């Protein structure tokens, strides 16, 4: 029954992560840490193993989502590669930070981070994008389904610097970085929502690939957990991309914000009290 629960967890995390461009790790890691207190098979799991296993799973979520979004012609591949120039080294730095962190500190900081992400998701549509590439830099155009021409852009140096922080969070928390990169692309660079999500999943795939290799070398991956999570993650990534194409994300965003707040509070409580 518990292995079926992990399969279902991988599916749901990937669907929500693919819809929002978050990667799914932001759901998998806290869920595994919370379930560790109630499940015999997850008992004693460390933050390092939860993060390392999550990153391996996100390779498959990111790849399946990216392939689906490429077919929809929504992935800005050039921008994704530019951002990866920052997120790749950032991911390795995050893995280095992760190796010595203790359980209580991890739970408290991760819980606070998740609540911060929920706040970013809450205010993002009320903030007018800051155009950072009015002169020079990378500029892009996109015609949305309504036929409107949308311009967006950024300075590569700024994008790489932000992506470094995103990659660091990916390696440290095992979340893929999309929870920060999507708001950054929307708020700072004026990306259309669908392009931001699709490009974020491409970046999630690349960052998870780099981070997971290091975690595998450090022995931070439980392959049994990964094997249970990966099938759901693969199909969830495809399903999430299909849902993103057809539906507005407001209902999903509201549900995800509430979910993140509850999980964040639960993790902070567990970190402070040890319960």
UniProtKB/TrEMBL annotation:
Transmembrane segments annotated in the record for this chain: 49-69, 81-97, 103-123, 186-211, 223-243, 255-272
Topology of the protein relative to the lipid bilayer: Multi-pass membrane protein
Principal subcellular localisation of the protein: membrane
A Pfam family per the record: TauE
Keywords: Cell membrane, Membrane, Transmembrane, Transmembrane helix
Domain of life: Bacteria
Signal sequence coordinates: none
Any one annotated GO CC term: plasma membrane
Location relative to the cell: Cell membrane; Membrane
Family, as annotated: Belongs to the 4-toluene sulfonate uptake permease (TSUP) (TC 2.A.102) family.
Protein name as it appears in the record: Probable membrane transporter protein
């Amino acid at each position: 029954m518990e292995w079926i629960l992990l399969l279902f967890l991988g599916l749901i995390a990937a669907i929500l992560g693919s819809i929002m461009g978050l990667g799914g790790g932001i759901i998998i890691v806290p869920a595994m840490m919370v379930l560790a207190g109630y499940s015999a098979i997850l008992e004693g799991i460390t933050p390092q193993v939860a993060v390392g296993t999550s990153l391996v799973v996100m390779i498959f979520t990111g790849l399946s989502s990216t392939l689906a979004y490429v077919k929809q012609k929504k992935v800005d591949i050039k921008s994704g590669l530019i951002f990866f120039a920052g997120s790749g080294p950032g991911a390795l730095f995050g893995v280095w930070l992760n190796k010595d962190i203790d359980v209580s500190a991890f739970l408290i900081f991760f819980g606070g981070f998740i609540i911060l992400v929920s706040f970013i998701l809450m205010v993002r549509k009320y903030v007018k994008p800051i155009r950072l590439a009015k002169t020079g830099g990378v500029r892009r155009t996109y015609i949305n389904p309504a036929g409107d021409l949308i311009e967006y852009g950024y300075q590569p140096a700024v994008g790489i610097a932000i992506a470094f922080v995103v990659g660091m969070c990916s390696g440290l928390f095992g979340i893929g970085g999309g929870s920060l990169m999507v708001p950054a692309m929307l708020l700072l660079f004026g990306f259309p929502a669908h392009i931001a999500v699709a490009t974020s999943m491409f970046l999630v795939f690349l960052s998870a690939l780099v981070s997971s290799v290091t975690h595998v070398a450090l022995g931070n991956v439980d392959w049994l957990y990964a094997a249970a999570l990966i099938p759901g993650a693969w199909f969830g990534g495809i399903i999430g991309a299909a849902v993103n194409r057809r539906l507005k994300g407001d209902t999903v965003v509201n549900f995800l914000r509430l979910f993140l707040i509850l999980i964040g509070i639960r993790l902070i409580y567990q970190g402070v009290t040890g319960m």
